[in-house]
């Protein structure tokens, strides 16, 4: 089968074009594709399918996705399904343009969190309108060597965004965070962040279903939302190990901008 490989600030994905929904993508196949030694390697898989050929029902809250021609069927590297992936949408949009599946600099992408508006900026960066970001109170997580406290946030998928006092490079994210299972019955992505200059955050993330990654778009948005005083507008530059994205929070909603590239295409015998 044909595949492509792409990344957004080094959050990397195996892209599988399946316009007519003919592929039966199992958890095992996803794990193998994402395996960095036995497979192609990636933090997740983006199946590129026409929304009408998706082959699964959407939650009522996600039905806006039906107006988008193309649907991002996102899977984590452990094979699990997630509702939303911010960098994934940006890379997915880049692939749609690259493959000639869409034209123009504004279009929508369907996700399990509804339709997301994509804009291709004049400098080539890709911006995605993230929709509703819901602040859900406080919680904490046990990391390898410390307990961190933060804000529970839904960006379509679950997050715990925790401000830490020192450099984020000093935090041990080597083991999966232990979460309050009542607050997070489906697990969560855990971000640690620190404001290093006015308007600039440094962040690292341990992603549900993928482990520590070099960037996470929804996590970047969660950290920026947690760092913004309630009711205020803000623009944050968020530095992650794989690069930098910008988050804008204003009356038009929450937008995530940054680079997204397709770096390879080929044929795989793993699917
Ligand atoms: N890397 C993504 C988030 C992918 C999904 C996440 N691991 C989850 O399970 O919720 C992003 O860029 O947002």
TrEMBL record:
Residues annotated for substrate binding in this entry: 11, 76, 86-87, 157, 189, 207-208, 217-218
Signal sequence bounds: none
Gene3D superfamilies hit by this protein: Diaminopimelate Epimerase, Chain A, domain 1
Coiled coil: none
Protein name per the record: Diaminopimelate epimerase
Lineage per the UniProt record: Bacteria, Bacillati, Actinomycetota, Actinomycetes, Streptosporangiales
UniProt gene name: dapF
GO CC, any one term: cytosol
Annotated site location: Could be important to modulate the pK values of the two catalytic cysteine residues: 159, 207
Pfam families, A to Z: DAP_epimerase
The EC number(s) this enzyme carries: 5.1.1.7
Top-level taxonomic group: Bacteria
Organism expressing this protein natively: Nocardiopsis algeriensis
Similarity comment text for this entry: Belongs to the diaminopimelate epimerase family.
NCBIfam families per UniProt: DapF
